[in-house]
Protein 1
Amino acid sequence: MAIKKLKPVIDTLSIPQGFEILPNPLAIFQKSTGELWANPAFEKEFGKDTLNSFKFKKPMGLIQDRPVHLSALSVIGRQEGFVIENSMGNKIPVELKVSRLAESNPDTYLILFEAVTDKIELQKQLIQNHIELQGAYQKLNQTQAALIQSAKLASLGELSSGIAHELNQPLQAIMGFSQELKYMEKLSPTGSEFLDDVIHASQKMAEIIKSLRSFAREAGDQVTDTSVQNAITEAGRIMRHTLLQSGVELEMNCPSELPLIQANPIQLEQVFVNLLSNAKDATASNPPGEARIVISATHNGETITVTIKDNGCGMSQEVQEKIFDPFFTTKSVGQGTGLGLSITYGILKKLGVQISVKSEVNVGTEFTLIFNTNETNQKGEIA
Ligand SMILES: Nc1ncnc2c1ncn2[C@@H]1O[C@H](COP(=O)(O)OP(=O)(O)O)[C@@H](O)[C@H]1O
Ligand SMILES: [Mg+2]
């Protein structure tokens, strides 16, 4: 398809002189003959050679562009989604504005071409910005959730520290006097039994107070070179008896050559004890001989990944969302304090360790901890 120059036919088409020098790319189309004339601005915009090999197409996505029939140039109004292909093979997106040249002449149409490359670029940019904004929004939400979690922990930490302190003194008195009473003579057997119950209950309370205190981070939290493997082994040792009693099999896959990390060894042990203890509780209703916990560590570049996996009761999505909340427990009174995981979360967060959980009801649960090794930290300092 070729386009002719407009200037020589201006008179024939009874177009006012000077019309062709308008700065916008435009063409006149005569429907009956299928002839097309363009002004100099058109050549300027789309290239001189474009007149000789005018290619006017409609992009079809992944399919090859479809040539546009010239009758499209006699459809009055605004039309989008065309490209003009110039002699270099470049495709320039355009929009058309078609109108009658004169109301009295239904055969001749005026077509204004508007290159919309900028518009399309702008659209692409807008979409890109939108995606980035969505990402930022998601990040903001996550940060907000983490902030709420730390704020909750901080205020509860203060509160628990106070309560723990206040309760501990009278409790020490109860325990002391009960122990003494136990050695006094003339205690009936029933009295002695009651006293045993009192002592047992006080010990339980002392344990709760101890965990409240460590929740409030009263326990020292100086960090030092720490071996993840030692903390896991030690936690396993502490839990061995309980696990054995409950008939839970514990498998440990831990390479001996793990790099050191920065942590407080006692707190790290506590993290693993908490996770093992929860895993054990989760398997309580497994058939005998079928309770199993696997704790594995792997070292990959500058991180150590530890997973604690059980084949216990698992958790619903709803429970998973709350497990790090202080005092959240699904266990019966006396069984759980709901502090284990919030303590764990607090300790790990301070060390910059990521903790995540995957769980399926009636299948099991896997906690994953990702530690930065000393090597990463040193690199961080240099940078
Ligand atoms: N391995 C697990 N399998 C199933 N549920 C778990 C597991 N670990 C934690 N949970 C859930 O998270 C809750 C909170 O745990 P935690 O903070 O340690 O408190 P507690 O053990 O005293 O209930 C538990 O009550 C339990 O519902
Ligand atoms: Mg627990």
Protein 2
Amino acid sequence: MASAAVRGHSVVYAPRIQGLLAREEKVFRIDAATVGVSDSRLIAGIVAERPVTATERSVYKPAAGAEIDHDSATRTIRALGQDVMAGILTPPPPVRGLSGAWPYAATGYLRQWLFSADPAPVSLLSRRGVTRSAAFSRVVDRAVAVWPGGAAGGGRTALAERIREASAGQDRRQAIALYRRATATLCDGVAALASNALWLMGPEREPEEVPVDLTAVLWETLRLLPPAWMLFRMGGGAYTELHPEIRPQDNVALFPLLMHRHVDYWEDPLEFRPERWAGVADPEKTPAFMPFGFEGARCWAKHLVVPLAERLLSVAFASRLVISGPRQQAQVPLRSLLSVRFDAGAIV
Ligand code: HEM
């Protein structure tokens, strides 16, 4: 499973990911407190066994000292959906923004495309220079907390409207946190996916060579290099009946990355073959495939991710963007989102 040569170029995984890819068993101990799982049935069983807890959540972990209630969570996703759909229909920013170090260039480009119309200080919440600094983030949070908001609408995103409508205090602080998390999860996730897709398509691709079926390319990318490569469950208490290796005191790490390239589940698992998704009406019904989680804990934003990544890649191809380096052996560092690093530039 470790070899990842695809179309004559390969990735170098961080040593810990490399170590996981070398594991042959589907249930294995990673350390004294963690069991790793890549068995399709067991992963499905674990995901269905209990809902994720508030602290295991990422977007909806508690904010401003309180849990996020269901109503606020669903309204946030609805607002994000409106903003993505509206963004996809607006003209993209100048394509020079896509040149540079990926996936960061793509993250910044998406933020600018979708959220820069928000009035200051809200738009600063998603600006990369700000999100990378805890001190800057606190200053911007405070500015948004006292932001007068003005009249309804006014060309802002639906997510910014959620902040404007929130009453002062905890409501507003939660709306601010959700704006920041939703925009970051979206832009980072879609940038990682697009980065992985560009790499898998290969640096030798001619700039004008646009793949016929970009949707299939993206599903195949979600299989071979899934941005959400590991899901984590704290505590094994609920799972001890499911497998003898799991003890109550264990944490459990579920690995779509390993499951998606296991020879028991896939034909020629290491080959990048978008054709395998041609004509597949609902890829997520495919056994041993869970780029957005299984039934019971499925990603709330999955319907937004693939269309936005597709639009971003179309813009990249239209601007004749190609990978400028490295041509071989790009790095995949150990991060919560799995993403290939490379430089890209437009051919003029
Ligand atoms: C490339 C982008 C994304 C990928 C690959 C992805 C993948 C996933 C996966 C695998 C899960 C299951 C997690 C688990 O069971 O532990 C999940 C759950 C979830 N995702 Fe996503 N996701 C993406 C983007 C987003 C975005 C943009 C949002 C919203 C802002 C979002 C919101 C959620 C929520 C709310 C859950 C359910 C977990 C919970 O209840 O908190 N995701 N996602």
